Amino acid sequence: MASSNTSKVTGHERVKPRRSHRKSRNGCRVCKSRHMKCDETRPACINCSVAGRTCEYQSSLVSSPKPSLPDTPEANSPAPILCTLRPSPAAISAVSPSHEHGPPVYKAAQLSALDSASLFTLEHFALYNHAKTVLNGTAMPHESPLHTVSVILEYALQGQYLMNQLLAFSALHLAHLHPERTDYPQHATDLQTRALSSFNEAKHDVSEATCIPMFLFSSLLGLHVLHDTLRYRPDNFGAFLEQYMSYMSLHRGVSIITGKSWAIIKISDLKTMIQKVEDTFNTAPDHAHETDVLYTMVNGSHMNDASIDAYHQAIKCVRNCLNFHHALTEQGTQAIDGPMTFCITVNKNYVEFLKQRQPEALVILAFYATMLHCSRDFWIFADGGQYIIQSITSHLGSHWERWLRWPNAVLRGESKI
Questions:
Q1: How far does the chain reach from its first CA to its final CA, in angstroms?
Q2: Which residue range(s) make up the domain with 204?
């Protein structure tokens, strides 16, 4: 995250009165005790790193409330959604110097945590080169895939936050390919932190010059966080849902940018890819008759009319996304846009129902998870869909079993989208 902007004190100013009000309140304990200006780099500030001292922050000793992400951000303010996001705790391994005698010895991944957001190394160049492979496997194979990839790489060269997130995504993919390499997950986390820090410091006015880098940044960040949510799962399903809701709130933030500048994005260098996706979504035949049972479930409940109407909207959304997924599959295209579209376009009331753990909302989530399962070869999703369906089935029990027959049939290979 970005460092605090609190003003700091020079050695000369320490003799002035009321100095306590001018000192950095977020510096490490060692720098404070030695009356030194702390740069506040975490997990170890540069002063402590160079001197080989153990760096300790007050915030690491006293737990603080975790910031929450709003569900539906204001259309003119993307910053609150993305700025409050932190790298997934499950994906973070400690970066601390190991030394018993003499100066500390750092690995490359540890040094990268000390770099500024604008400093790039040969190691980062290798990640940039690998990003071409990642995007070819992640982006939709449209009419001009190489052109689309080159456009994304070109935009990354124009902005620090997009470049850092692209490199983080590249490192995440390498961690998937080489699970024995513990440095790749660390690189992914460090670079994501750098990306968020530089994004926080950037101006967030949505314009023709900024909307496309912001759109690409939000999309890559959403995929990155979804990967961490599905991969680093807690033992408790309730805790997983909390993590998933945080991801969902983040990814819905994409609609802030697209809603305000979609007309610009549609005529940009990405227009071929975007038009292909839009055409497929709008012309997808209605094959998802399995969702008819969801209307029966909701209409037979004791909800008020407003809640029933909100659920009908959510059912229509998941049905459209299932049709979209089916159409992409028929084209021989990697059908990753179906589940991503659901998270962005489903109505706000459904998100609230899901937060409340309403059984009907969980059943709809199981239908959504069939798209994750059917695209499980995509490295971001893996076994996430299977986990969600099985967990919801176990959580709701036998009373809700009949509404979950189709998602479980998909798991068993007895049905398909």
A1: 41
A2: 119-271
